């Protein structure tokens, strides 16, 4: 092989973490991207790239964890994936894994999200105009009008609360912006970054000089563009394939899961394609050291069994806090550790309740996807998802098809406690206590009484550092981390996961796909970095 194609070394890659990020990184390093590069270099798979994946726990999937109980699909972590934005890449991966026939799009009624306002569950206004009709006019009219004629925002980053309060009034912001921040980030909207959490809104306003004007003018344009624009980084075959999966329904608000096995179908399928000798399960990477061998960097990994492993490139998808100061991986690079220590998180407890009762089914059927609870309500609950509304096919039949699956989220970022005395620090709570809180909440706000029913199955999962908290200044922090990694490790150390470009499954997948491309480009010294088209005819 000519050295111009393959830089010296660089062909041993370790992937840390067997969640969707790590599994996706492994997939693209060894399939599409990696394989295409090897074919170009006329190398066969075995003696070229050595890629191993290390997973601490006995299972893969990470925060994606689906329990199937008596045919009821119970999502302990994420429950749905959106089509919009990076979802196109997820659908492309689904097609590549031959899972397209397993896709389950959400029921139309799940398009509506609700919120608990003054003790009553009401639909979340899907547009600001609805908000005015909805009776927030007392706090909205002046801020909206003044905002339309306001000069272009000069601020750099700012909190979501200040961004929206200035434009819509504090009342509207606390009523329906704050709950959305709870429902995605489990976050504190007084400290969440508008630039990182709602980048398109932030850019729209800067481009058009006004949030309302910009969103009204750009809405149609955005919808039409979104598929094509995102699809630009997919080759034509992929775009065609994804479009056929969407059956010409370009409704960008759609969300999906998978038949029978929920979201874990995706991570299980990715796992199945990893050769056993390349997958180190129950293997926690405890420390990493770096040395130079004849001018080539070598990473020495020590695992929880005391074994040592050598690699030229490390793609870490473990949560960023593991690289922070005072953590085992933090001793690898103190400057990196100091940066990673600045990343905050939200802790979330997820309580799944399965009911087998006609009254409950009747009570929840009108709640769509579920509802969010603003801090001002002073309740311990962040939101309630009615999964049996969103994916009725996955509810399981039970006695005569009256199964309901309800998921209650509790906790969130500690900053919420400033506004909600009922905020719960879920990390130190017993699961039985969390289940009691969830059942009491559902009974009270769905108007159930104990006589009517009790759940036939419950599950509680406590996620510590569940979701990265994109605080004001988050984007600048990520740029500092990326710059440090590039300057010091020249692409041989990559940090993937959902700490940077978005907290969702799609963002995790997209991040891993772009990291795999960067790693392969570096190994094969491939200069056409941006317009690399993934061939699809080589996918096994
Ligand atoms: C409650 C909740 C609800 C959510 N809802 C949604 C949703 O509806 N839609 C959506 O798109 N997203 C949702 N998300 C976000 C989604 O779960 C994440 O974006 C995604 O799962 C992140 O995957 P990951 O692989 O980056 O990280 P993880 O899933 O955390 O995987 C990291 C893996 O690394 C392993 N690991 C850790 N340390 C080491 C080590 N030192 N050595 C080896 N292995 C290690 C862990 O065991 C784990 O398996 C939700 C998240 C939570 C917590
Ligand atoms: C109430 C708590 C939470 C619920 N889900 C999450 C929390 C903290 C976590 C979460 N939910 C979504 C994502 C992915 C975001 C993305 O960028 O794709 C994460 C990390 C999906 C989501 N959930 C809601 C919205 C508006 C979105 C965005 C994508 C979509 O439209 O699906 C709102 C919402 N979350 C929960 C409920 C009950 C709810 C609305 C009623 C649960």
Overall average residue pLDDT: 85
> For this structure, what is the CATH homologous superfamily of the domain at 3-61 and 265-343 and 472-525?
FAD/NAD(P)-binding domain
Structural class: alpha/beta
The stretches of 5 or more residues where confidence is low (pLDDT under 50) are: 1-8, 128-138, 224-232, 527-540
The CATH level-2 architecture of the domain at 3-61 and 265-343 and 472-525 is identified as 3-Layer(bba) Sandwich
Shape assignment: globular
Query: What is the CATH topology descriptor of the domain at 3-61 and 265-343 and 472-525?
Result: FAD/NAD(P)-binding domain
Bound molecules: flavin-adenine dinucleotide, the ligand C=Cc1c2[nH]c(c1C)Cc1[nH]c(c(CCC(=O)O)c1C)Cc1[nH]c(c(C)c1CCC(=O)O)Cc1[nH]c(c(C)c1C=C)C2
User: Number of helical segments?
Assistant: 17
Radius of gyration: 24 Å
How much β-strand is present in the residues?
A: 15-25%
**What's the CATH class of the domain at 3-61 and 265-343 and 472-525, please?**
Alpha Beta
- CA-CA gap between termini: 24 Å
Overall number of strands: 20
Helical residues, percent: 25-40%
Q: Which strands sit side by side, in order, in the main sheet?
A: 8-7-16-17-18-15-19
For the sheet with most strands, the description reads: 7 strands, mixed
Main location: mitochondrion
Keywords: FAD, Flavoprotein, Heme biosynthesis, Oxidoreductase, Porphyrin biosynthesis
InterPro entries: Amino_oxidase, FAD/NAD-bd_sf, Protoporphyrinogen_oxidase, Zeta_carotene_desat/Oxidored
Subcellular location: Mitochondrion inner membrane
